């Protein structure tokens, strides 16, 4: 068992957020949440948005580690009003509040979509040395997140772990989309594996100043993303493979 840490999870009411909260609690960590919606399974959870800097400061008091998941999670019809404010300005508020609070480790949720075209055409597995090829504006906001995350590590001495995530579905419709294409099944990330991955990032050695890690469950056909860094730094070895974990999303396991 690693050292017990006080962890704040933003986006704690979302699909990945709930999985992270449950795994951190299972491992004995002290967990607080922050979301626009009430957070299941948490006694300490702030209901606010990323523009409420007072609520952010209160939530980050006496926190060792921040897992920042809160964001608009997809491309939208109106990115200027619905995507950029939470993913850019909201990120600014989160990082500046964390810096002022003296938080030493920040785990930032990026996306495998920053390597969208390499994932589809190869060469595989895609790793963090390859140039990015964003799918669209959502992935571009994650590229911004990654670059400014490095700056906080270099300029402020904070430990920053960037997580390029596979597809952890939020609803039955997304489960159906994954079921329709082997490509999506190869980059599927089950809720259980998502929780174990982020918990490993929280527990990673304090000497890690900056890292970019990929996370997926076990691929069905092709290993498209390189999980070497996730294994070495976060101790992550995926336990699930599509359709494991779909019962958490839909209420029953998906059967092809």
* SS elements, strand count: 7
What proportion of the residues form beta strands (DSSP E)?
5-15%
What is the helix content?
A: 40-55%
Poorly predicted runs are: none
Rounded mean pLDDT is 97
For the largest sheet, list the strands in their spatial order: 3-2-1-4-5-6-7
CATH architecture label name: 3-Layer(aba) Sandwich
Which CATH top level class fits? Alpha Beta
State Rg: 17 Å
**Total domain units:** 1
Gross morphology is globular
Give the topology string: H per helix, E per strand: EHEEHEHHEHHEHHHEHH
Major β-sheet profile: 7 strands, parallel
In the CATH hierarchy, the third-tier topology is known as Rossmann fold
- What separation lies between the terminal Cα atoms? 38 Å
Tally of helical runs: 11
Class inferred from helices and paired strands: alpha/beta
Query: Please, what is the CATH homologous superfamily?
Result: NAD(P)-binding Rossmann-like Domain
List the SSEs and their pairings.
Elements: E1 6-10, H1 15-26, E2 30-35, E3 45-47, H2 53-60, E4 65-68, H3 79-82, H4 84-101, E5 105-111, H5 116-121, H6 137-156, E6 159-165, H7 172-180, H8 182-186, H9 191-202, E7 210-215, H10 228-234, H11 246-250
Parallel strand pairs: 1-2, 1-4, 2-3, 4-5, 5-6, 6-7
